[in-house]
Amino acid sequence: MESMISRIFFQNWQQKLVALGSALVIWFFVSQSIIETKVIPGVPIRVVNLPSDKTILGLHPNGLLSKRVTLTLTGTKDVINDIEPGDLEALIDASIIDHDDWIIQINKKNLISLNPAIDLKNHISHVSHTEHVIRLRPLITDKVPITIQPPTGEPPVGYEYLDIWPQRLMQTLSGAEEEIQNLKVIGLEVTFDLNLITKADLDKAKSSQNHLQDDEVSFMIPNQWKKIIIPFHNNANEDFNDPEAKYLKIDFLRKELLPIKNLIPIRIFYPLKFSDLINPETYTLELSDHIKEKNHLTFFSTPLFAKGVSRLFLDVVRENLEISVMAAPKSERELLECTVNINDSHSLEEIYVAFLISHLSNAKNNQESISKNRELLFRNRFRDYLQKLSLYSNEDEKLSLEGRLDNHTIKVTSETF
Length: 417
Fold this sequence. Notes:
By secondary structure, the protein is of the alpha+beta class. It has 4 domains: 1-32; 34-131, RNA Polymerase Alpha Subunit, Chain A, domain 2 (Beta Complex), CATH 2.170.120; 140-254; 258-414, no CATH class. The protein is 24% helix and 34% strand. It contains 8 helices and 27 strands. Strands 3, 6, 9, 11 and 12 form a 5-stranded mixed sheet that branches. A hairpin with a 2-residue loop joins β20 and β21. The chain is elongated. The N and C termini lie far apart (117 Å).
């Protein structure tokens, strides 16, 4: 057996070695001569040497077009079989574009290998593709509005959401004229999530603020939140570039029980349609432990508290608070409606807004712009407080008054006393 193996491998070994080498050379050249064709979808197109005053529809900031091309490649089998969609990129020199709508021609000189192991230059013989048009357009720079939407989520425990400022920013963008103009029409939107803000964040913000209204807390939006998705930039997140963005903040109200301190007048409103039956001569407000009379005026004598509003708002309106009882015959309603009103709210709104604008103007190191929109924000905040104002008899008991007709008097009682 050993002699047989020896004869096979070592007898005439020089001739056998030459034959093996020849076979390998023949195999190599034969394998290199086998031609294969393969379709490669989704090949990215990169544009270079674009004139500074031009752009292309669908061009991203990195020079790639949003639309990709499908290539049919012909070349040596071993290389063609190894090529995958992520291995190629087509490079287009924009300096040769001579029409606004230019049909590109991609050949093997345009192909860039993204895989160092693949040699395209020596192994690709032909490239074909479907018609692909590059649309060259003037490059413009303009401002696109960003609307800051009301945030989603819930505020931290102990706080309630007030509003956000600024509510509108302008993003300066460069791009194809038609893309910019279309985006100016539809605008951009940003929505923040209150769930990302913690009680510790607001407690810290409160302690760092030095102003009169320490129950209104401003959370300054961090820079990492100040980003906007640009549709024609491949939905990339870009930083806000409006200078006003540095003032972007969400305001919260710290929930507190605020003492009214003042006596609150209480009076009967007599509707004209019931005046034949119910009027000041036939029905008067009955006095009690909680309803007293002074200078021929009736008032609610029990100390009350307010919730849902700021301390400043309460300071402005407290003298104009009033409890009104709507008179009506028993045939209309058994229990009379009792409401809390704020008289001359328009004048009080002017005082409230003027105070905030004055305070903002006088604040040290303040650079915020005081615009009509800022004034409108203050007015809306005042009107929201008008709607939210609730009276309480203590921390847990909301004031609930009931009025009844009783033997030519109107008796007002409360379950909370």
